[in-house]
Model the fold of this input.
Amino acid sequence: MGTLEALSPGAVVLVGGGPGDAGLMTVAGRAAVEQADVLLVDHLAPAGALEWAAPGAEIVDVSKMPRGPFTPQERINELLITHARAGRRVVRLKGGDGFVFGRGMEEVIACTEAGVPVRVVPGVSSAIAVPALAGVPVTHRGLVQGFSVISGHVPPGHPQSSLDYAALAASGTTLVVLMGVANLAAITEALLVHGMDATTPAAVVARGGHPDQEVVQAPLRDIARAAGAVRPPAVTVIGEVARWASEAFEEEA
Done:
């Protein structure tokens, strides 16, 4: 679903809510929220978007908070299917884009296997939007020709980590780290060990798109220490483009 078509009873629509400010959602995403009978909502979904829901809509909190309230993915899948089979118009609202570390495809597969119609409204990924809100372009002509988006959910060397940090350090791309606050020291150390320049600019943007957005800047060797007080959600940008990071970008523009 990439247009303003009507939601069908008994169907599920996966809506990417963007980086935090409801105003950054797509028009199609807002239309889906307005038509929903049931909304299953993550903690990173834009809270302001819930004001668009119909008065009788049911809002179900299915947050997955780090070291906090946690709804298993299997339970979320079950709720999507149960509500759809009851003939409701179901919207799954999450932050960013549901297909960028959002487990959206797992929900598509679960619905499809259950015979439940499912559509997708892409969202603005925080991997690109949050740096932009701090004045950081992930690419820039004549400076960098690409960017790599990685999950920092597990540290380098962890059995579940599939990332090649030597290749990342030598890639010549901007590195954008999502879900990396807890492991930032280990991630930066791995990049340094594999030869990335210690003076490479880096920035951590916390609560991007919210009124209390916070930006911390430092060279790669110091960024983990400088951002030690930062709490999730936050996006880390490593590369020459990070030198432009600014908390006051919106006012300066």
About this structure: Residues 127-248 form a domain with the Methyltransferase, Cobalt-precorrin-4 Transmethylase; Domain 2 fold (CATH 3.30.950.10).
